Each structure stands twice: as C-alpha cells, then as structure tokens.
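User: Hi! I have a protein structure encoded as tokens and I'd like to know what sequence might fold into it. I'm fairly new to this, so please keep things simple.
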C-alpha cells in the first residue's frame, strides 16, 4: 500500500464483531488497496480507510464507493452465471485452495497476536529472568 500510515486492525472494531473479524477486514482492505485489477474507486476507498483518512462506516455509506462495490458484485454475479459446470468445479477447487491458505495465514497471525509478551521459548520464563539457586 502506498499510504504513509496504516491503521492497526483494532481500529476496525467499530464495525467488527470481534478481533478476528477486524483482522480479516483489515487484510481484505489491504488486498483491495493493492489489487490493480479492481476499480480505482474501490482501491481508493480501501486506501482511505487503511490510512485513517476515512472511517470505515463512512466509506460504506459513500455513494461513490457503494456504487463501485455494487458494480463489482454485479460483474462477479454475471461471470458466475456464465460459467460452465466444469468451470464451476474448477472455481470451487481454486477457492478451497485459496481458503486453506488464508486460514493458515490467519492462524499464524492469530498465534503471533496472542503470543505472551516477553516470554521465551524455554520453560515459559520471562525474558531476562534468571534462575537463582
């Protein structure tokens, strides 16, 4: 992303139901912001939210952004309607692979986020703590 500053995912808790959903929303916004294949209005919206210039609730209510979302969804729907049975099966398989990678990445990020701060991998002692005898 080209913005100087990127908000932490916790700032999306105003629209997310839990930290996990906020993290997924943050990752999705980052993917949209970086996707050159998407409409410029969608990318601008994602960049504006990630930079903190626009609140996510305001972005979802902005007519320019909602129109871009609806246009994209309509294109996705039309493409799905035009798929053959074989193409649908291939698409489902690709999605399953992508979804597995996304879940693994989220699990890694969750583990990093939830890891105890200042604990070493040796016996769970705080870093810098020495054993005295």
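Assistant: Happy to help. Inverse folding works backwards from shape to sequence: for each of the 133 positions I chose a residue that suits the local structure. Here it is:
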């Amino acid at each position: 992303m080209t913005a100087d500053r990127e908000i932490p995912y916790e700032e999306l808790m105003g629209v997310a139901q839990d930290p996990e959903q906020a993290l997924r929303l943050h990752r999705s916004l980052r993917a949209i912001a970086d996707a050159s294949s998407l409409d410029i209005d969608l990318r601008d919206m994602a960049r504006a939210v990630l930079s903190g210039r626009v609140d996510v609730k305001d972005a979802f209510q902005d007519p320019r952004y909602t129109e871009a979302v609806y246009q994209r969804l309509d294109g996705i729907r039309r493409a799905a309607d035009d798929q053959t049975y074989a193409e649908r099966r291939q698409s489902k398989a690709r999605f399953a692979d992508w979804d597995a990678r996304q879940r693994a990445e989220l699990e890694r990020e969750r583990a990093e986020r939830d890891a105890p701060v200042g604990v070493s991998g040796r016996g769970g002692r705080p870093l810098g703590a020495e054993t005295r005898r």
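A useful reference point when you look it over: Confidence is low (pLDDT under 50) at residues 125-133. Feel free to ask if any position seems puzzling.
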